[in-house]
């Protein structure tokens, strides 16, 4: 190692034994100030020192992370030098995955299930769909108050993984009030009295994708692998909005059933075909409600939000 560089490292040695993040940053500043004086042969050790100081800085800042109630979420990361930006990006990705697992492990079984759905919702719609928000009580699974009618339906099929009131678009484009019930095997639409026809029971293996708009509406188009059997629904009807929770829970239920589907936030109009035959399609256009009324109004070709 060149003499000048050896001397430089010797001056930094006392700093390297101190665990204070401030000392790490001071040493790093000194290192940057000396960069232009280093011989070419010293650049390799110089990069090694940058890596060392960055690593020691992380260790000092995150040493008590397991006893932190937020598992280090509020800790400020040291600023990486240019050559360490890829490593910094990779480490932050690893940390986020670890943080999510720790947060989930600290919750009850029911809270864990809800958080998994919330994380999926964030992945699919955060920054993509207007109105996205998650609160502690978000995504509580059951939104139909008539539990007796739902229990009778569950006795014929299986337990509801998600349920909510909805408005379904008929083949002729007529909005019709419905209940939507998602089980481990089917997507079921019933009338308000929980009467169900077999044609309104969709196997999760038949689902290919679910499309939503980027707007603050509650409409979802469930795409079928069989042409003509798409399902268009307003999740929550005119007033409530359960679309993002529905999309996340549908994805999870399909995945658990062995059918991985696409979740698409689609710009522009949403195409669908619920005519029960191939080659006949319509498109939904999304517009701001001119009356300024809150909620979603679903029609054959137009969605007001």
From TrEMBL:
GO terms for cellular component: myosin complex. It comes from Monosiga brevicollis. Residues 121-305 form the TH1 domain. GO terms for molecular function: cytoskeletal motor activity. This is TH1 domain-containing protein. It comes from the Eukaryota. Pfam families: Myosin_TH1. InterPro entries: Myosin_TH1.
